[in-house]
Amino acid sequence: MCCARNEISGELLILLADDDTLIRKYVKKILCDAGYSVVIAANGQEAVSLFYTTEGINLLILDIMMPKKNGWDAYKEISGQNHEIPAIFISGYDESFIDVDYNKNSFIKYIPKPFNQQTILDAIMEAVSQNSI
Q: What are the phi and psi torsion angles at 29 (to 5°)?
């Protein structure tokens, strides 16, 4: 976990789950450089486990297609206990894999891969501002 904090990120703790090692490293670097604290999971099952064993997670960034448990199923399991945790889904697949209307649900955002640094940071800021994190 990287633990740097700055005035923009505040106390935000992000759970990042992606089965691609390079994507995890890329996104972790972006988030840590921006001052966010990050915990990392390699699949959806690990993400659920980390969520329940790590205090203070208040934003999820989940790949949609992962082994053991996909990102959407992981989100549904986590949000079953905490209905107001925002999630940003990242995927090389289109958003039709998630059965939700993004325009009506301020807790869920979708970013197609590949994405750049500014895209992910903008999505985080939008999630923070819309959900009073």
A: -60, -45
Tokens 């989940």 found at = 62
> How long a stretch of residues is the chain?
133
Is 6 inside any structural domain? no
Per-residue tokens: 11: 């106390």
Collect all residues with Cβ–Cβ distance below 8 Å to 25 and sequence separation of at least 6. Answer: none
The CATH number of residue 72's host domain is 3.40.50.2300
- 5 belongs to a structural domain: no
Does some domain include residue 94? yes
Tokens of 3: 């633990």
Number of domains composing the chain: 1
Let me know if residue 3 belongs to a domain.
no
Q: What is the pLDDT along the chain (133 residues), one digit of tens a residue?
A: 554 443 444 578 999 999 999 999 999 999 999 999 999 999 999 999 999 999 999 999 999 888 898 888 899 899 886 567 899 999 876 666 555 554 555 567 888 888 899 999 999 998 888 766 5
